[in-house]
Structure prediction request, 299 residues.
Amino acid sequence: MEREKNMSETPKEAQYIEIGDAGIGTIEAGPEQQERLDEFTERVGRGEFHTAIVWSPEFKKMILVRCVDGRVPETGANPLGPNSAGGTESLFVADDLTTRRFAAEDGSTAGGYANTVTFLNEAGYEVGGHTSDHAEGKASGCGANDNLPAIYECIATNPDVLRDYARILGVTVPDDIHQHIVGNARTRSKFSHGRELLETLQQTAKAAFVDNLTGNHHEVLTVINKKAGTTLDRDALMAEFGENYQAFNVDAWAFEAAARAISGDDEAEVAQKVVALLYYNLATALVLSGPSMRVVVTE
Prediction:
């Protein structure tokens, strides 16, 4: 497979693949980021900047509350928590791509998201997302949120690419689950704009972690983090490399617990939603990133 042929090894242990032609976005390393790119890939890929999440009593039911975005929140940010594209919105997407337990009567994504947030709050889970200092008009400031139609289109039109990447990451996706997720991505036609989804989170949640991220995107690496109980410490990363080196971080270790939170005791449904979360995060990376974006797995 061509993607596997592109596997390269950095000076020590961390291995990466480049997204390649499937990456249709603009975020990738530029000429000004080449000097420390290999060092950045190696050190972040080995987990040097991943830190344990401190589960204080009030946050013990925190799942997928922060986004994969590599930018640093303004002063006074919320506690570290597991990362997935769009934060808690990823749980709505996982449901929407599978069983649609939380589907709204009007068919809107905002309505489905509101139902998801309400359910999670009532079950005692924290919820969260983010905006940014560049957000204006109908945009929320979250790339995963604002590009949701394009992400669904990516899943619908590049299913084999996503399945291949899942296999490279060690996940074998059964035919029935794969076809079900892709089919639901293709049939979704009604999307609420990003600002409406952000306002849904803010207005529906009893309380929500909504960070305001600052500055521009400078991500050069996408991390699939499998180290249970950890997440990327972006403040530590910026202190070492400055604001011109950032990483998208996906806490894949948290997917199963998140899927269980919205699936009850149905093991088949849990399996579907774990794959949906993976496909959604991979598709987000493809939509936002350029061909040279590097992907590493931290274990």
Summary: Strands lie at 8-9, 15-18, 50-52, 127-132, 208-213, 219-225, 230-232, 246-251, 294-298. DSSP finds twelve helices and nine strands in the chain.
